[in-house]
Amino acid sequence: MKEKPLIINNIFVNIQKYFFNFYYCMSAPFYTVKDVPAQDFIHAYAEYLKKNNKIKIPEWASIVKTGLGKEISPIDQDWMYVRAAALARKIYVRGHWGVGNLTHMFGSVNDNGKHESGSGKVIRYLFQQLEQIKVLKKDNKSLLKKGSRIVTKEGQQDLNRIATQVALAARK
User: Fold this and answer.
1) Are 70 and 108 a contacting pair, CB within 8 Å?
2) The whole model's pTM is what?
3) C-alpha span between 45 and 106 (Å, rounded)
4) Residue 112 — very low, low, confident or very high, per pLDDT cuts 50/70/90?
5) Does 116 score more than 80 pLDDT?
């Protein structure tokens, strides 16, 4: 007689593991950055960065423009935290962004319809700050986009934790 009971036991063990994992996932809700609205997540993550002093604001932040198409510096005092949160979210959603791509993304349209680039120094500085707190890292293994940024495992856990808090607050 062949060992059919062993196969049946393995099937039951796999079914038990599946239901245990399903129950565990249902009992502890988990959301990612992609599951929550961008505006809510960016606001919550900017507040987290500010409250925990994760990013140092340089002296030049109050006088710098955020792009070529701008005339004055931002009015909001916390604009650097908001920009850092937006950068972290953008790289989480679609990794392998570089400074050049993001200057285009954060640029603006001038009066004559020409698209002006955003500030590269601000993006480079925020990349360095996010790398220091281990949210982002340079990806030197990629064949196509060497030196582009990706989210680290610690950063992904951090961002998902904030996203879960945002989603649970929205459910209430």
Assistant:
1) yes
2) 0.80
3) 18
4) confident
5) yes
Q: Is the dihedral of CA 155, 60, 103, 66 positive or negative?
A: positive
DSSP H or E segment with residue 148 = strand 148-151
Residues in contact with 37: Cβ distance below 8 Å, sequence separation at least 6, in sequence order: none
Report helix angle 79-93 to 120-132, nearest 10: 80
Sequence-ordered list of residues with C-beta below 8 angstroms from that of 81, at least 6 positions apart, any chain: 46, 47, 49, 50, 55
Give the model confidence (pLDDT) of 39-81 as tens digits: 999 999 999 999 999 999 999 999 998 888 888 889 999 999 9
Tokens representing 18? 């599946």
Tokens 């062949």 sit on residue: 2
CB-CB contact of 138 with 151 (8 Å): no
Spans of all domains in the chain: 1-30, 31-171
Phi, psi of 9 (to 5 degrees): -60, -40
Task: Identify the CA nearest to 159 among candidates 30, 53, 57.
Answer: 30
What integer pLDDT is reported at residue 162 of this predicted model? 97
What are the CA-CA distances from residue 82 to residues 9, 98, 142 (Å)? Answer: 54, 19, 28
**Span 31-171: which CATH code?**
1.10.10.10
